[in-house]
Structure formats: structure tokens, C-alpha cells
Amino acid sequence: MTRSTMVYVHDPRVRWSVPASQVLRIISADDWADTRRSSPAIDVLLALGPAPDQARDARRVLVVLGARDREAALVAGGPVKIEEVDPASVLPLPSLFAATLPQVAAIVVSPDASLSLVVRPERVTAANDSAPPEEPCPSRS
Asked: Which end of the chain is more exposed for a tag (fewer CB within 10 A), N or C?
């Protein structure tokens, strides 16, 4: 199996990651705010609760290709690290959790047994944006 590279954010609530191939750039939160006033940076973990004070004052954002192929900035509420991941370490989410957080694709189990949520940038939308398109449900026939 080929290892893939992930960009991890060590948010105080939970560590999360995005495949490095989907990260366009990492910039300061101020630079994003100065150039993109109409689309604020998105807290991908908001459904898990409000960010602690130090995460609210994040200094960086990950700029990714988000919903509808638009650039989106994801709040990096902690240190950012780039690491390779063994595909066997990527586990599917339990269905209840997947239904609650559609922007989360999987869980990565690191060699030290710590966990990381894998974010699907194409499913991330800003609060002022409409919801991402729903995935078709399989027929119950």
C-alpha cells in the first residue's frame, strides 16, 4: 500500500487532518481575512462544541478546495504538522457519527494509538453558504 501525506491540526478539542493533496496553501488568518472578507474561515469542529479561547484566536488557516470547488479557509486552532499515513490506519466512521458530521470522512489511528478525524473539504460549507449536496441514499427495496 502507498502511504499518503496528511496535514494535521492539533486543535484543543480534537486532532483533525486533511489529505495534503487537498490543501492549496497554509496562510495567516489575518491574510485570509484581509483578502476574503465575504467568506470567513470555517471552524470544521463547531459541531463538537465551541473552540477554546486559544483556538478562537487561531493565527493560521488551511486553504482548501471546498464545496462547489470554491476556496475555503479552515481554522487551524493549534499547531500544524505534515505526516505520512499508512492507509491501513484509516478507519471508516461509525454510521451515527458519519450522519452527525458529514464533513468528517474517517478516523486515522496513529502509531501512538492517538486518533485524528479526517475532514472532507468538499463537504465543508460556511455558515452563510447553503448546505452541500446530499449523497444519494441507497434504495430500500
From this structure: C
CB 3 within 8 A of CB 87: yes
Q: How confident is the model at residue 138 (pLDDT cuts 50, 70, 90)?
A: very low
Helix (H) or strand (E) holding 138: none
Q: What pTM does this model have?
A: 0.78
CB 120 within 8 A of CB 103: yes
Nearest to 21 by CA among 88, 85, 89: 85
Going by C-beta distance under 8 Å and a sequence separation of 6 or more, which residues neighbour residue 73? Answer: 27, 29, 32, 36, 39, 40, 41, 42, 61, 62, 63, 64
